[in-house]
Amino acid sequence: MLLKPKAKNARAKRFLVNRDPKIVENGKTALFVRGSTTSQVILDTLKDLYSLRKPDAINFTKKNEIHPFDSETSIEFFARKNDSSLFAVGMHSKKRPHNLVLGRTFNYNILDMIELGVERCTTMQQFKAQTCAIGMKPLMIFNGEAFNQNEDLARLKSILLDFFRGEAADKVSLKGLEYVITVTAGPAGANGETGLVFFRAYTTTLKKSGTRQPRVELEEMGPSLDLRVRRVRQPAEDMWKQAIKMPRELNVVKTKNISRDGLGDKYGRIHVGKQEINKIQTRKVKALKKHLDAKPSKRQKTSDDMADSD
Amino acid sequence: MDVTGILDEHKNRFKSIQVERLVPVEFDLGLLACFDVNMIDEAQLRASQKARDTYLQELSREGAQLMINELFSLPTTVDEDSVYATLPAIRTVLPREKPAPKEKPMTRWEKFAKIKNIQNKKKSRMVYDEDQGEWRPRFGFKGVNNDDQKPWLIEVPGNADPYDDQYKARREEKKERIDKNKRRAQRNFEENLAVEKGMKPRDMRKRELQSALVLSKGSTASMGKFDDKLAGEPKVKGLKRKFDPLVKNSDKEKSNNMEILNRVSKGEAKATGVVNVRKAQRAINNAKRSKKQE
């Protein structure tokens, strides 16, 4: 159990406050770890995923005795020390060749993880395309209805979205849409084995199309991975519920009674309550006073006479 | 004038941006993601690797085209030389990395400011110092307010002793202000702690005082039995001094004496068999460090 560090100067205090829970969180950092035995394929995969994830990524180059599905303590320790909530562990054994475990943590405890077998990997170096700048947000495409139907693939989709999300942004530069990641769910095998999941990454070039929207042309950038889902650890119900809970401050406050029409004019709506016109307090005018006894006044008589005379 | 010919020529010059999809594609533009549930051509995926990759690239291009079409139709803002599209809120539920922060209770000042509706006025970091003719920070290093040279002249106030050091008085006032601030911050901290535990601050202080009182009773040989009592002090039960019987079991007497001897000569760990892990670890670390330095 790690002791909570105490800050001895202002800089350390700022560092620790940055790691505290916040309303709007920092971008998630990913940690890339190697298992006790690795293969070239899995090392290439880790290296490429790390370069896609930069700058919010930490790469451990030394080998570690780490088995995420058997023991959680290693991962949780790393997550706490490095303040990383995403992790990728790569290892290789005869039983599970080219094994990649992707997962995420919540409050420094493992939330969920998925074990993938990398059946084929083409690295970024093998594609002669120009790589995009570091830190760009990718466009993500998930092809296949299996991502909605199959529980394991739905978990993979959620983890991959989190992994390649980049920093949260409410605006994006239309010039900065430089790369695309496509994940396609392949068909199930003939003997009932789960299908391959095809992970591809491309750089985009936007060409003129004569209309406002440009024409997209893609060039494969890498890495190109063929993955097979092995084991999946779904999150615990209560942990998931707590992780989804959004703080009240983030709830969007709906402005009521204000609307804009097509021309951009702003309209406001005022609700006036029920008015009792009889009881409205106005300035007192004696002439308008209602007499309790309906006595015809002298003046009225004379006007009547005048009317009669005419 | 027949312009259809020219229009067709113009259209044919550029490649189409339309993409046909049977089932409309779902977008989550806040994440720059799209989810396509259309049927995939399985034959292509089972074919050779090259055919598969070409098919996947085609699929991806169409998906990317659809997304670019959507993104370019979003409301935009122009900033310097780039055009930004305002993204809508995220629709997929993604988990946070840490739980939401607990709401901190308001400090005394915050409560007061809320009642009086006092707004926080933002002050700038730099202030123009006319004497030196340059911008200096309002506080901190080389700040305007902690310069000992300023003011170069202090008038003695009407009611003060003319022989008093006014500069000293200023410095002491500043120290007092700092101490006051620290005391208030400490008070806020204690009040916050009490509120988090669900007690009123006054009750918490009362409890702390009572526990300190009980502890202090143990420092007298008679366990505070004959101490002067305060008004309203509660009676403490069970605080007695324990004496061993005069005639003890000989084995027990021997083990007690050996324990005392071991404690004095060899240490607490050897005597009682209980090891303070933290101290032991620190001793080991210190030894390692001193060995490294050699």
From TrEMBL, chain A:
SMART domains (UniProt xref): Brix (SM00879)
One BP term from GO: ribosomal large subunit assembly
One Gene Ontology molecular-function label: rRNA binding
Pfam family name, one: Brix
Keyword field: Nucleus
GO CC, one annotated term: nucleolus
Primary location class: nucleus
Keyword Metal-binding: no
InterPro entries named among the record's database cross-references: Brix, Rpf2
Biased composition (Basic and acidic residues): 290-304
UniProt region (Disordered), positions on chain: 288-310
Location within or outside the cell: Nucleus, Nucleolus
Residue ranges of every copy of the Brix domain listed in the record: 28-238
Family the UniProt entry places it in: Belongs to the RPF2 family.
Protein name: Ribosome production factor 2 homolog
Gene that this sequence comes from: RPF2
From TrEMBL, chain B:
Free-text function comment from the UniProt entry: Involved in ribosomal large subunit assembly.
GO cellular component: a single term: nucleolus
Lineage: superkingdom: Eukaryota
Compartments where found: Nucleus
Protein keywords: Nucleus, Ribosome biogenesis
Protein name: Ribosome biogenesis regulatory protein
Main location class: nucleus
Encoding gene (name): RRS1
Single Gene Ontology BP annotation: endonucleolytic cleavage in ITS1 to separate SSU-rRNA from 5.8S rRNA and LSU-rRNA from tricistronic rRNA transcript (SSU-rRNA, 5.8S rRNA, LSU-rRNA)
Residue runs in coiled coils: none
InterPro entries: Ribosom_reg
PANTHER family referenced in this protein's UniProt entry, alphabetically: RIBOSOME BIOGENESIS REGULATORY PROTEIN, RIBOSOME BIOGENESIS REGULATORY PROTEIN HOMOLOG
Top-level taxonomy: Eukaryota, Fungi, Fungi incertae sedis, Zoopagomycota, Kickxellomycotina
